[in-house]
């Protein structure tokens, strides 16, 4: 039989019969129907109950060449229209709730890229960067930048074995607008798409979007703020002036009221996500 060395309860058996007594014979065990990749141990045993007072000898146990199966790799991507600048960033896995805990590695360094032209940045999950860039004179130009990261199925991320059917890849970094260091999973626009799916293309958001489309009130606010939209709101996030996400809520309704009692006085950007895209509004908290 073939067995899993770590767990003997995982096995498959195939019988063979000795056709002639007291002669060397070749026995062939056909495991062609066994699932590949599960077994790493060969076990040979005899049916001693079938006969009595017999001695069995065996020699030259061999199997077919073992070809290790390489894990399948997946390429995730996202595209942004961003100004020329130096950016730092990192990729994260999200299983269910937003979290910083499942990054490529813990702490520094961040990845870095110098944006001074349209480009595609090709990364491999977990390979740390060697140096930071310097764009010099930034100017006012905007460039299309596509970030790609390759990750193999089964890659250990914290205590998780990466599964593209269960897990998601997000990017976080020093990007402009509301795309900055958002907690991975809190901003749906920053999720990378997989394989042949068209990458999300983030264009410059219109901070002064028509107020008729989305209404944020009262503004200034203290302990509560309500948001009304002409269409169904999917998600709302509130970012402080550094780009940090301070509040996130899944909505699925055209109106929502948020508790802002924990926010300190100051100005915030409110990102309202609908099926049509994102509208960014300004909010002031006064105490």
Would you mind describing this structure in some detail?
The protein has 287 residues and is mostly beta strands. The protein is built from no helices and 18 strands.
Features:
mainly beta, five-stranded antiparallel sheet
Helical percentage: under 10%
Number of strands: 18
What Rg is obtained from the alpha carbons, in whole angstroms? 29 Å
Low-confidence runs of at least 5 consecutive residues: 203-212
Distance between the termini: 73 Å
Structural class: mainly beta
Mean pLDDT: 81
SSE arrangement, N to C: EEEEEEEEEEEEEEEEEE
Output the number of helix runs. 0
Layout: helices, strands, pairs:
Elements: E1 2-4, E2 7-12, E3 41-42, E4 73-83, E5 85-94, E6 111-115, E7 119-124, E8 142-152, E9 156-157, E10 160-161, E11 168-173, E12 193-194, E13 200-202, E14 214-217, E15 224-239, E16 245-259, E17 266-274, E18 277-285
Parallel strand pairs: 4-13, 7-8
Antiparallel strand pairs: 1-2, 1-3, 4-8, 4-12, 5-6, 5-11, 9-10, 14-15, 15-16, 15-17, 17-18
Summarize the structure.
By secondary structure, the chain is an all-beta fold.
């Amino acid at each position: 039989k073939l067995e899993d060395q770590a767990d003997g309860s995982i096995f498959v058996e195939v019988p063979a019969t000795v056709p002639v007594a007291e002669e060397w014979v070749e026995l062939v065990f056909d495991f062609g129907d066994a699932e590949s990749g599960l077994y790493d141990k060969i076990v040979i045993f005899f049916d001693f109950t079938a006969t009595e007072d017999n001695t069995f000898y065996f020699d030259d146990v061999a199997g077919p060449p073992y070809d290790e199966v390489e894990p399948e790799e997946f390429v995730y991507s996202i595209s942004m229209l961003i100004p020329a600048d130096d950016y730092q960033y990192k990729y994260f896995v999200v299983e269910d709730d937003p979290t910083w805990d499942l990054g490529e590695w813990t702490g520094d360094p961040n990845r870095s890229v110098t944006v001074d032209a349209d480009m595609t940045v090709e990364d491999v999950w977990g390979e740390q960067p060697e140096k930071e860039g310097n764009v010099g004179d930034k100017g006012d130009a905007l460039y299309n930048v596509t970030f790609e990261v390759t990750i193999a199925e089964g890659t250990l991320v914290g205590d998780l074995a990466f599964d593209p059917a269960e897990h998601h890849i997000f990017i976080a970094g020093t990007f402009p607008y509301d795309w900055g260091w958002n907690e991975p999973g809190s901003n749906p626009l920053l999720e990378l798409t997989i394989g042949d799916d068209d990458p999300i293309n983030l264009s410059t958001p219109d901070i002064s979007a028509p107020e008729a489309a989305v209404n944020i009130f009262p503004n200034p606010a203290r302990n509560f703020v309500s948001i009304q939209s002409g269409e169904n709101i999917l998600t709302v996030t509130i970012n402080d002036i550094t780009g940090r996400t301070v509040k996130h809520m899944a909505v699925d309704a055209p109106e929502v009221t948020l508790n802002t009692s924990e926010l300190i006085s100051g100005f915030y950007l409110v990102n309202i996500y609908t099926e049509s895209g994102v509208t960014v509004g300004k909010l002031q908290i006064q105490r």
